[in-house]
Amino acid sequence: MISGIQLTLLIGPVVPLPAPRFVLDALQTVKVTTAAGAPSGFELTFTIDARSELNTLFLITAGQSATSVTPPLRVMMVITMNATPTVLFDGVMTNAQMQAGGRGTLGSMVVTGEDLTKVMDLIDFSGMVYPAMPVPARVALICAKYAAFGIIPVPIPPIALDVPIPIERIPAQQGTDLAYLQQMADEAGYVFYIEPGPAPGTNIAYFGPELKVGVPQPALNVDMDAHTNVESLSFTFDPTKGVLPIVLIQNQATRVPIPIPIPNLNPLQPPLGVLSTSLANIKFMKQTAKMNPVQALGAGLAEAAKSQDSVTGHGTLDVKRYGRLLKARQLVGVRGVGVAYDGLYFVRSVTSTIKRGEMKQDFDLTRNGLISITPVVPV
To answer: Is residue 269 domain-shared with residue 362, that is, in the same domain?
Structure first.
């Protein structure tokens, strides 16, 4: 599709196959969005007429319900750069809209979908019990149902592992598998998402703390002549963003709530700026009074980490000039903006747009302070 960049589109129920030639010929635009804290999604735009075979390929599979016996249409996209394949997206189609043409012009069809968490949100398994099973075991057991989609569970045990004793309580599921996984993640102060890859057809189901550590991606360079690889980049600083969460833990004997402040001291989310976000507000988390101390602590740590990102950035880059795909939920360096905003950032979201002859990415960055903690960033 682009010199040096090749897009491979695969579609099919459960096990996708390379798309037919007529599908690729009609494809005009591909848009894929990946963001921390939200499911990934895609949008495919095709040209179409009344005799197009796309009508039977997509429309008969649109709007699959939870009770449908037909498996949802799986859509996978693989980007190959420098002979290295990278899975851009793996999910299922959720909707198809067709706009008829007129006066000699072709119509258009827009196909949208979500990542494989959508498959986990189809059937209500309320009442399923997990006796004497800690949270990581429950996560692995739930994800095992979806092995046909190549989902590999990676559950990280909470800081304080809570193993329920059957004679005291037996955990029971309420809602769909996705709803229950997100409920357990919220109670532990964790996140749950599905990351496509590393090999096509496989997916990592991550259940654990949001990681803001690791090897950074190559730097985003601004106004650096031949080394410039970003088309635009802007930043916003909000000094009122800092919040000190106070969890309420109920004393079982007296039923009196005990307030406990939770500082942002998560080793998996270290400060990325020298001048960290100052505390401007206090938030009482009244809902934690219904939780046990372990769950309340996890919820407080998650809120403390989320409220410290006072610096946000938004920009656009050309993938061919950058030399690789920028990925969300990882660190990236920034150079050439200035002392206050240079340094490492957490990539909050990335939207990849592919058209014939070009591939660009819009991205959002976050950081919990000004001035870089590192003298240099990886180039």
So the answer is: no
